[in-house]
Amino acid sequence: MSHPYTEVERDRLAKLDKIRAAGIDPYPPRTRFGDLRLRAAEALRRIQAWQAALPQQDDQERAATLHAGDASICAVMGRIVARRVMGKASFVSVEDDSGRLQLYARVGPDSIDAASFELFRDLDLGDFIEAKGNLFITKTGEPTLRVTDWSLLSKSISPLPIAKEEKQPDGSIKRYSAFIDPESRYRQRYADLAVNPEVREIFRTRARIIKVLREFLDSHGFLEVETPILQPIYGGAAARPFITHHNQLDQDLYLRISFELYLKRLLVGGIERVYEIGRDFRNEGVSFKHNPEFTQLEFYAAYMDVFSVMDLTEQMMQHLAREVLAASGGKTFFRGHTIDLTQPWQRITLRDAILQHAGIDYVEFPDRDTLAAAVLERKLMPPDVVKGKTRGKLIDSLLGDYVEKNLIQPTFLYDYPRDISPLAKSKAGDPTTVERFEGFIGGMELCNAFSELNDPLDQEQRFLEEMRGGDDEAQPMDEDYLRAMRYGMPPNGGFGMGIDRLTMLFTNNDSIREVLLFPHLRKEA
User: Fold this and answer.
1) I want to staple 513 with a disulfide (CB 3.0 to 4.6 A). Which of 296, 401, 475, 519 is the partner?
2) CATH at residue 68
3) What region does 113 belong to: left with phi over 0, alpha with psi -120 to 50, or beta?
4) What is the CA radius of gyration of the chain?
């Protein structure tokens, strides 16, 4: 079915026909003034520099000089976001990714001819154009390009939901977006980015976060690598995978749920510090903090343990905050709280945190049944939630229900149950507990780390226990990974962190969909 054009779109299509009838290509293959182009911000800086260099003049002479303009010729390119026609003169504002600049065109020897002006006057919001001319300042003080030549670069057929703008007494611009429905914005992210500059800033911040993380890890001797996305055996996390099929090999494959087991194989091969930033895929529910595909950072370092990884994580996050949030002194505002990311992190055992916030000491209940009975007796969870959970998953639920929301300032919780940490090394003298931490900020889990298990016999036994447990998110047996371990794996510490949640924290967004360019959504009705 073809697109049902609206009246506005039909009017623009008529303009398109008129443009073509005039012998103009409305979608030309290249620009005409590329060698003269200034981005909007550069044009504004040039005007400011020109103003500053003007000799001393009285106000009337200065105004005349500014209105006459800078003699040098330049060009700007961008999307039209505002326009007004005043008789034989027309003003438009064009926007590129650095800002916006006003253009002025009229019929005259110092501007454009009548035929060109007629087409210029008929331009629509959303059209992309390029314009050549000289920079000047209008009598109202607006930096402007006086157009001497121009070209249409792309005709807009469907009107963007352009925001309404009002100039405030202090000179700032207040925007009232016409495109604020979240689901519409996520489905049409291209339109969202086009009309909401603050959304573009989210993704610039996201890119900056990834860049700074890379720089930090590179400077600490880590090697960035790439591991398979399609894997014959999935592993490294408790999650259900997506399954696909390779026709030539007649083989089922899985989209990875983690990089972990492949990165640790590289430690066996003698690469002592490795990291990867990339996509993971987990066949799980969609929520404000979960998306089926997400970006993850994982690193593994030989001869480190959970506590040295904890120290490195604290240094990394403090460095990241100073670099990305420099304007706020390393602080972010998230979920109604001001959070100082440059301060030392609190360090609390999981046992003490649950005792403090849920009022139960799970160490006093050494098996699943006694802990379940205590949880039910204290009405900490309903019976249908308790049913079927292992001891470790009961403890994890207590953490999620009672502790996590209270961890606002940066906090490490450490010493976790063994049965929910099949790849972590056991704590000395306590076989039920492993050397693991999770990092929390703003009431949200942000990162996870272990002293990694490097005993192949213990690892094989853990895999078997997982498989016997009947959990559909259990780690399957990975014989090749065990073979790698049998060659000898150095003691090491490992770390994982979601880039999406980190971006939520740094940009004060409570939904993961705000920080994903194209989040997964249900089919449109």
Assistant:
1) 519
2) 2.40.50.140
3) beta
4) 30
User: Which of these three, 159, 191, 224, is where a domain ends?
Assistant: 159
Q: What is the pLDDT along the chain (525 residues), one digit of tens a residue?
A: 578 899 999 999 999 999 999 999 999 999 999 999 999 999 999 999 888 888 877 778 777 887 777 778 999 999 999 999 988 899 999 999 999 999 999 998 888 999 999 999 999 999 999 999 999 999 888 999 999 999 999 999 999 987 666 666 776 666 666 788 889 999 999 999 999 999 999 999 999 999 999 999 999 999 999 999 999 999 888 889 999 999 999 999 999 999 999 999 999 999 999 999 999 999 987 777 789 999 999 999 999 999 999 999 999 999 999 999 999 999 999 999 999 999 999 999 999 999 999 999 999 999 999 999 999 999 999 999 999 898 999 999 999 999 999 999 999 999 999 888 888 999 999 989 999 999 999 999 999 999 999 999 999 998 888 777 666 677 788 999 999 999 999 999 999 999 999 999 999 999 999 999 999 988 887
Residues 425 and 500 in one domain: yes
Residue 360 and residue 378: Cα distance in Å, rounded? 9
DSSP codes joined into one string, 164-218: EEEE-TTS-EEEE-S---HHHHHHTHHHHHHH-HHHHHHHHHHHHHHHHHHHHHH
Q: Which structural domain range is residue 246 located in?
A: 199-345+410-515
Report if residue 339 sits inside a domain. Answer: yes
Q: How many CB atoms lie within 10 A of CB 409?
A: 16
CA distance 522 to 386: 30
Cα(451)–Cα(414) distance, integer angstroms: 11
Do 155 and 203 lie in one domain? The reply is no
Q: Are 404 and 443 in contact (CB under 8 A)?
A: yes
Q: Decide if 441 contacts 410 (C-beta within 8 A).
A: yes
Question: What's the domain count of the chain?
Answer: 2
pTM for the whole thing? 0.91
Helix or strand holding residue 375 (H, E): helix 368-377
